[in-house]
């Protein structure tokens, strides 16, 4: 799909992988709507890239429906949707204070997995109304999984479950939405320089980077965004989860 002129929605667009993706899509000519709960940051990014910032709590059906309608009114039916909103709260199943609370586990699932599905269902509903291109394509939906979906570490039970759900959801969604000309994929990043990573000391960052076979450095958000572009522009990619991780395979802890 040609990115130029296509309405695009990026959740978590105010920072990290989402911000980099929003900036890159805008640089390629997409009409970008940044969905986030951090409105000050989202508005600042939107102003810089010529997009719009829309408040969206991805865990809420009502909030997401309103956000998608706002984006549609501004730019037209969504043609590209990228799910980057997420949380990575660590927590052990049995911690020092007893078993993990069910609320903790549920929150991670709500934001990462249900939030991704929430946007997927609404974006697909808009995409089916778009005029198909020469390949019969109407839209592309990309969610953010994680290498933790495959090699979750100790303390990542909730996070790995949420990302594993995204992995499992990708193929059946791609198969179902194929009749509308909508492709569905996911990206599973390894260790990237995100706001959470930036909060760690340089010593910790260097230690984490040393575990990466090659290149032995943290991924750049712009490199994630470039993969988004490659997925959007390559019509044969569908139903796949693509790792971008410097050949990392995570140890138990």
TrEMBL record:
It is an enzyme of class 1 (oxidoreductase). InterPro entries: NAD(P)-bd_dom_sf (IPR036291), Sc_DH/Rdtase_CS (IPR020904), SDR_fam (IPR002347). Transmembrane segments: none annotated. It comes from the Bacteria. PROSITE patterns: ADH_SHORT (PS00061). Signal peptide: none annotated. Its EC number is 1.1.1.35. Keywords: Oxidoreductase. GO terms for molecular function: (3S)-3-hydroxyacyl-CoA dehydrogenase (NAD+) activity. Belongs to the short-chain dehydrogenases/reductases (SDR) family. PANTHER family: 17-BETA-HYDROXYSTEROID DEHYDROGENASE 14-RELATED, SHORT-CHAIN DEHYDROGENASE/REDUCTASE. This is 3-hydroxyacyl-CoA dehydrogenase type II. It comes from Oleispira antarctica RB-8.
């Amino acid at each position: 799909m040609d990115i130029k002129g296509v309405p695009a929605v990026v959740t978590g667009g105010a920072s990290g992988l989402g911000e980099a993706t929003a900036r890159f899509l805008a640089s390629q000519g997409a009409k970008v709507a940044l969905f986030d709960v951090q409105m000050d940051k989202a508005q600042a990014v939107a102003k810089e890239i010529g997009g719009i910032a829309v408040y969206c709590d991805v865990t809420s059906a009502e909030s997401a429906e309103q956000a998608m309608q706002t984006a549609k009114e501004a730019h037209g039916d969504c043609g590209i949707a990228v799910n980057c909103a997420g949380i990575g709260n660590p927590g052990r199943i049995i911690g020092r204070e007893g078993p993990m609370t069910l609320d903790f586990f549920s929150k991670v699932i709500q934001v990462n997995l249900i939030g991704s599905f929430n946007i997927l269902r609404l974006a697909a509903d808009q995409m089916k109304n778009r005029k198909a291109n020469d390949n019969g394509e109407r839209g592309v939906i990309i969610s953010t999984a994680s290498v933790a979906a495959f090699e979750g570490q100790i303390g990542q039970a909730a996070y790995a479950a949420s990302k594993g759900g995204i992995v499992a959801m990708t193929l059946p969604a791609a198969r179902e939405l194929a009749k509308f000309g909508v492709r569905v994929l996911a990206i599973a990043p390894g260790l990237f320089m995100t706001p959470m990573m930036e909060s760690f000391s340089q010593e910790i960052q260097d230690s984490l980077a040393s575990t990466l076979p090659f290149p032995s450095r943290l991924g750049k958000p712009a490199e994630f965004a470039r993969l988004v572009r490659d997925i959007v522009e390559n019509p044969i990619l569908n139903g796949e989860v693509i790792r971008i991780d410097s050949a990392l395979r995570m140890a138990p802890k």
